[in-house]
């Protein structure tokens, strides 16, 4: 377990706090949740993106567009073409049959079963010759890419006291990365300052490191100001490893006493364009007057960061 060092808590004066809460709660009615995680991709049921396919086959997406996709490693090349032909070629040989391959928002999606049809046709990649190295002082635990949502011209959700989601995301992500670094995890961030990074660029950054896990950090918002708690998201056709990572983070955050909304499915763009296991964590609701204030508190951010870190370590050590 991590030990969280004590930090002075930042709080609002009592009279101001009461006034802010009263103003927010007056006249509010329940409504539909407004998510700020970015673009949803309406993929066909039972399909996976070519990036998810590459991750399951141990390949790399070298080229992807609406008209074709190419997946490769040192010995193999897979070419995928969408309908009306729907052909798939493995090392220059066409797989029998036609495949229900479609382009959605510039991303090709294929049937989940295609991975099982391609895998037997792939040539084994020889293992690299082991190099004898001195015993490391700390055994690396793995590589994780962290994605602090929003940034720059995109503030994300904003609380009643003016707290911007982009600042919460970056602050908590930095805490998580620092804790994991002390435990042998190689961490990389899609942004390290208040800058705007496009969704597809975030996925490209993640894929370039070929990490064991991609974790996107956000804070939620809803018209219903009583909505509260954290949520962990995976893609609708997420891999078993993505689901194990999500479950590990959900358990750790629940154990830390944070209200859980469970593990849910949604085809957010950063989830379907990453080849590695990928999850998106909503830390809480900035639209909730109580949670909005807690998310501004340094001690509470430390608590969230420790819980997410524990879940990630649980996942990496069980791989």
Explain what you see.
Helix content is 31%, strand content 23%. By secondary structure, it is α/β, with parallel strands linked by helices. It has two domains: 47-121, Copper Amine Oxidase, Chain A, domain 1; 140-317, 3-Layer(aba) Sandwich (Aminopeptidase). Strands 1, 10, 11, 12, 13, 14 and 15 form a seven-stranded mixed β-sheet that branches. A five-stranded antiparallel β-sheet has the order 3-4-5-6-7, with helices on one face. The protein has a three-stranded antiparallel β-sheet with strand order 2-9-8. A hairpin with a 2-residue loop joins strand 6 (88-90) and strand 7 (93-94). Helix 4 (165-181) packs across helix 9 and helix 6 packs across helix 9 (298-317). The longest helix is centred in the C-terminal third of the chain and has 20 residues, at 298-317. The chain is globular and about 60 Å long. The protein starts with 13 loop residues before the first helix and ends with a helix. The model is unreliable at 1-36 (pLDDT under 50).
